[in-house]
């Protein structure tokens, strides 16, 4: 892997800061996930410790994965490839570093407030109003830095990765304000069914308009670089970009098919959920044809392996998501562990693997040092890969058991003994992901700060 000069390190401090942010919170997020999984085996687990109860740990885990691990990891890559593709420098490294510091402060405040019981009680929108405002400010700072970088570019053509990066941060800043109802600081919510509609417009677009475009931007940059192949089709890349923005925006209501939302809105959400096959397959055809004949190069490069595995998981999460939007399928899959497995498949397996691949690709370039240990990076790859796949299989099985039992009139408590063994397996598989997170944190910290293999 090409190693850039020490000067390159000086102009990439923002990317370094966001890489460290992602690695740190990934370790803490998986730790919180293990605690939450423990409660499903032993409900009285740490029963007398209020700030570690399941109802507080679960939203901490979710928000740490979304905003602590995956988003900063993908942004770290964006802070590198946006100026590279524009043949310019990042608008302000100092702003980027301050942004990362504020980002960490925001996440830390979110963890403390949630553990203390301060919550708005809305899924994916649990954080209280002051934390919401800090998140919006963080995204605004990212927007300023990236937009001003693009404005000063020397390359006249905007490569598709830049399109995805800018769309992700601009659209998320908007949808976050809407979904968290920031104009109502006292409640952070509307009343009745309107709130549910707005919440799931935001909730699904956190994945569709933040994690997905940032992940696809990383894939479009890393895969051609690793394979040394030109992108198969720039036209297809733009078709996929606009297809994603047009189709994905309206699918959140498929979470509400069982409630009295307008029928026309349900129909749009179902149709667009199925239509998501189009932009997803356009992207996958483009990437996989770029890889054609170069699978060996992909598996010889740790960053390439992570990102390519992410594209495969993207295929499965899309097929699963399109099926889940069908009312007949939802009769079995809704409100049970099938949905939890689907979320882990999308956020951890697709976006998380892609974020790790993006960081491993840019890390030697932004630090001016070789990766501390390729062995540890490979070990993390296999731990996260097996863990993500195992999670999906186990939680899908549990969901099918629960859904079919409930559909046949069985009570909730009588189903619990049948799925206990799967919860034990879930914890065992979780240890793989937990180990991978801490190994990655060690590897990244050693690469940047304590790297005996680097030149003085």
Mind explaining what this structure looks like?
The chain is an all-alpha fold. The chain contains 16 helices and no strands. Helix 7 (193-227) packs across helix 14 and helix 12 (302-324) packs parallel to helix 15. Mean pLDDT is 94; it is low at 1-10.
Summarize this structure briefly.
This protein has 456 residues and is mainly alpha-helical. Helices cover 76% and strands 0% of the residues.
Q: Return the domain count.
A: 1
Strand content: under 5%
Give the rounded overall mean pLDDT. 94
Q: Which class best fits the helix and strand makeup?
A: mainly alpha
* The CATH homologous superfamily: Cytochrome c oxidase-like, subunit I domain
Briefly note the CATH topology name: Cytochrome C Oxidase, Chain A
Order of helices and strands: HHHHHHHHHHHHHHHH
The proportion of residues forming helix, as a percent range, comes to over 70%
């Amino acid at each position: 892997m090409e190693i850039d000069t020490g000067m390159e390190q000086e102009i990439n401090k923002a990317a370094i800061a966001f890489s460290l942010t992602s690695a740190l919170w990934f370790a803490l997020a998986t730790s919180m996930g293990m605690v939450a999984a423990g409660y499903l085996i032993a409900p009285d687990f740490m029963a007398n410790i209020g700030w570690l109860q399941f109802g507080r740990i679960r939203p901490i885990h979710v928000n740490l994965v979304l905003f602590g691990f995956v988003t900063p990891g993908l942004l770290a890559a964006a802070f590198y490839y946006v100026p590279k593709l524009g043949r310019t420098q990042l608008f302000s490294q100092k702003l980027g570093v301050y942004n990362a510091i504020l980002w960490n402060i925001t996440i830390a405040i979110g963890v403390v407030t949630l553990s203390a019981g301060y919550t708005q009680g809305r899924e994916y929108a649990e954080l209280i109003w002051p934390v919401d405002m800090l998140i919006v400010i963080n995204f605004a700072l990212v927007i300023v830095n990236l937009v001003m970088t693009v404005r000063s570019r020397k390359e006249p053509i905007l490569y598709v990765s830049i399109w995805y990066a800018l769309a992700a941060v601009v659209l998320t800043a908007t949808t976050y304000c809407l979904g968290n109802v920031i104009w109502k600081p006292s409640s952070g919510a509307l009343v009745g069914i309107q709130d549910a509609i707005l919440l799931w417009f935001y909730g699904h677009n956190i994945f569709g308009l933040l994690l997905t475009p940032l992940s696809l931007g990383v894939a479009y940059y890393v895969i051609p670089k690793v394979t040394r192949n030109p992108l198969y089709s720039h036209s297809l890349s733009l078709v996929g970009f606009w297809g994603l923005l047009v189709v994905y925006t309206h699918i959140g209501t498929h979470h509400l098919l069982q409630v009295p939302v307008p029928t026309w809105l349900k129909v749009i959400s179902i149709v667009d959920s199925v239509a998501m096959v189009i932009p997803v397959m356009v992207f996958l055809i483009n990437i996989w044809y770029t890889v054609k004949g170069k699978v060996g190069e992909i598996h010889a490069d740790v960053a390439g392996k992570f990102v390519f595995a992410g594209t495969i998981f993207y295929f499965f999460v899309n097929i699963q998501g399109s099926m889940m939007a069908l009312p007949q399928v939802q009769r079995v899959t809704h409100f049970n562990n099938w949905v939890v497995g689907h979320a882990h498949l999308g956020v951890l397996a697709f976006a998380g693997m892609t974020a790790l691949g993006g960081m491993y690709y840019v890390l030697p370039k932004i630090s001016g040092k070789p990766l501390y240990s390729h062995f540890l990076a490979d070990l993390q790859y296999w731990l996260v890969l097996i863990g993500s796949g195992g999670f999906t299989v186990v939680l899908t099985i549990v969901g099918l058991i629960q859904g079919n039992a409930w559909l046949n009139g069985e009570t909730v408590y009588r189903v619990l003994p049948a799925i206990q063994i799967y919860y034990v397996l879930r914890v065992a598989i979780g240890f793989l992901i937990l180990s991978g997170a801490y190994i990655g944190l060690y590897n990244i910290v050693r690469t940047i700060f304590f790297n005996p293999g680097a030149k003085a």
